[in-house]
Amino acid sequence: MTLVFRGYDRKALDREYNNREKVPDAQVWLARYARESERARRELTARLDVAYGSHPGETLDVFLPAGHGPKAVHVFIHGGYWHRLDKVDFSFVARAFLPAGVAVVVINYALVPTVDLDELVRQCRASIAWVYRSGGNPPNAAQSVAMSIATRWPPAECPAAGSAASMTSSPSGSAT
Asked: Cystine design at 84: which of 80, 153, 158, 165 (Cβ 3.0–4.6 Å)?
């Protein structure tokens, strides 16, 4: 047995990263995510598939709360152990924040092995910088955010605390 990481051989490590095997009803949950996300995209005010970079995987969906004026922004970085799932599977998270006036940005990124992990993390960082430049306040994010936080942001891209930037929605529902 050849150990590949902290006492795990390849087979044992692969088992640790296979939630579909570890969670008996994983497919039921994933189907629910897809169903509720499709409903959210159909019913909520959103800008879908907005490019934040040049790679085809660098897209995001922006869900906007009703009203005008400054909004907080929640950035959701989907899970999937870097090689599964898509932003469209997680649109449902917007429903939790919109009633409080919080805009929600659900990002996508290219999956491993089409890119390496360094590129995946670069894309997550680029999405956060895009939100900031587009008028979002410093975002909260889910998985992969730790590496984004650890970034030594170039001054031109730095999500600065206390920013007066805001994300607003026009009557047509498009972000301005």
From this structure: 80
In a 13 Å sphere around the CA of 139, the CA atoms on its Cβ side amount to 33
CA-based nearest residue to 136, from 108, 160, 154: 160
Q: Which long-range contacts (CB under 8 A, 24 or more apart) does 170-174 make?
A: 173/45, 173/46, 173/47, 173/64, 174/47
The Cβ of residue 33 has, within 10 Å, a number of other Cβ atoms equal to 18
**Residue 81: alpha-carbon gap to chain centroid:** 13
Q: Residues 6 or more apart from 154 whose CB is under 8 A from it? A: none
In-domain check, residue 166: no
**Facing residues of 60 across strands?**
50, 107
Classify 160 as helix, strand or coil. Answer: coil
Task: For 34-69, write each residue's pLDDT tens digit.
Answer: 999 999 999 999 999 999 999 999 999 999 888 875
Q: Which residues contact 99 (CB under 8 A, 6 or more apart)?
A: 65
Out of 60-74, 127-141, 144-158, 159-173, give the one with best mean pLDDT. 60-74
Q: Any idea what the CATH number is for the domain that residue 130 is in?
A: 3.40.50.1820
The range of the structural domain enclosing residue 20 comes to 8-157
